[in-house]
Amino acid sequence: MAQESSTDLVEISPDAVPPVCKIMDYGKFMYTQKKQTAQKKTKTQALKEIKFRPNIGENDFNVKLNRLKEFLSDGHKVKIRLWFKGREIVHRRLGEELIAKIIEKVSEFGELDNEPKFEGRNLTLVVLPKKIKVVKKLNGNSKDKVQ
């Protein structure tokens, strides 16, 4: 039957009772399998963004900071945007103090990709997650994580 339609008889699940076979083009089957395994191997690193305002309350600041730490621990890049509205742009010093406070709090979870810079009414910076290095001990049996 497979030879008549110029296709192949492919055994899909040999361990099943009875074994499962399919009539299909084997080359196309192998191509799609290879493509699916390649897609599984790719790891995407999303750029998450968190917006702050210069006159943010302490509890709101802590909530956003916890969210930022969560993103970094998941391995995502985080773009921090301090947004000045209206006449707040006159008080750039407050924004720079807030960014310094954020950098201080996040330093144990991430590292700066670039220095904070003004882009119009926004003060932006990107924070990368810290890489954890795995070091083998001399005996080679156990591994220690070193930051």
Explain this structure:
There is one protein chain. It is built from three helices and nine strands. With 147 residues, it is of the alpha+beta class. It has two domains: 34 residues, no CATH class; 83 residues, Translation Initiation Factor IF3. Strands 3, 4, 5, 6 and 7 form a five-stranded mixed beta sheet that branches.
Which helices and strands appear, and what pairs or packs with what?
Layout: E1 8-13, E2 20-24, H1 26-41, E3 47-52, H2 58-73, E4 77-83, H3 92-106, E5 110-112, E6 117-119, E7 122-129, E8 133-136, E9 143-146
Q: How much is the average pLDDT?
A: 83
CATH homologous superfamily grouping of the largest domain? Translation initiation factor 3 (IF-3), C-terminal domain
Please report the total strand number as a whole number. 9
Please state roughly what percent of the residues sit in beta strands, choosing from under 5%, 5-15%, 15-25%, 25-35%, 35-45% or over 45%.
25-35%
What is the helix/strand order?
A: EEHEHEHEEEEE
Which segments are poorly predicted (pLDDT under 50) over 5 or more consecutive residues?
none
Calculate the terminal CA-CA distance, rounded to whole Å.
61 Å
Helix share of residues? Answer: 25-40%
Number of domains: 2
Number of helices: 3
Q: Could you say which structural class the secondary elements and strand pairing correspond to?
A: alpha+beta
Morphology call: rod-shaped
Return Rg in Å: 26 Å
Please name the CATH architecture of the largest domain: 2-Layer Sandwich
Q: Main sheet?
A: 5 strands, mixed
Q: Could you please say which CATH topology of the largest domain applies here?
A: Translation Initiation Factor IF3
CATH class of the largest domain: Alpha Beta
